[in-house]
Amino acid sequence: MPDKLSFKHEPVALVIPSYNEGLRIGELLRTVCQVGLLSRIIVVDDGSTDDTAAVVQASARTDPRIQLLPMADNRGKAAAMVAGAEASGCDLISFIDADLLRLRPEHVIELIEPVRAGTCSMTLGLFTGGRWSTDNSHRLTPYLSGQRCLRWSLFRSIPDLDTSRAGIEVALSLYAWRHGYRVCPVHWHGVTHVMKIEKMGLLRGNLSHLKMYGEILRYLLHILTADRRQARLSKPR
Questions:
Q1: pTM above 0.70, yes or no
Q2: What is the DSSP string of 78-105?
């Protein structure tokens, strides 16, 4: 693995949207700081009420690439991802979730390299060999993965991207499909994440899942409505 100071190629930013991940973000940052390809590591604190910001600031004292980007309130994952991408100053951007477990530096490199090399326009990090529940989720709905690398210049013009909340992964996947951008799956063996019911308990975790799927459905309905409106406007009179 290259030394973290030996980066001489195109700048690569890693954006980590985070909400109340003080228990996990420190370990995640220790892992990604070993990735020499990264020129910036931006943690977007989406209005956390725990010590997420303090943990990130402590980590930043050991690696100058780490930057804390605080949001005044909880605006949702999409707003956090867009804010991080825009603040990065990079076109080549990787996104990962803050609650990942057993992530290794090589996983991040594997996510970045196909896009950097021009093999594809976007990669998807898919869990395999971690645990059945999260493996199965990525097997059934790979387009919902939060682990991606892409060129921001291709995706930043997606309509209403910053307000899509949990629908942002669907927005990115749908836009790539519609424009014929090649998307490459990258299998992350052994990686999993902390599920909502583990963070919040059974009731609150399931309610959070319902809210997430509601936001995804709301975004899809918004796109469908916009398509129908555009079809009516372009129909010959």
A1: yes
A2: HHHHHHHHHHH--SEEEE--TTEES--H
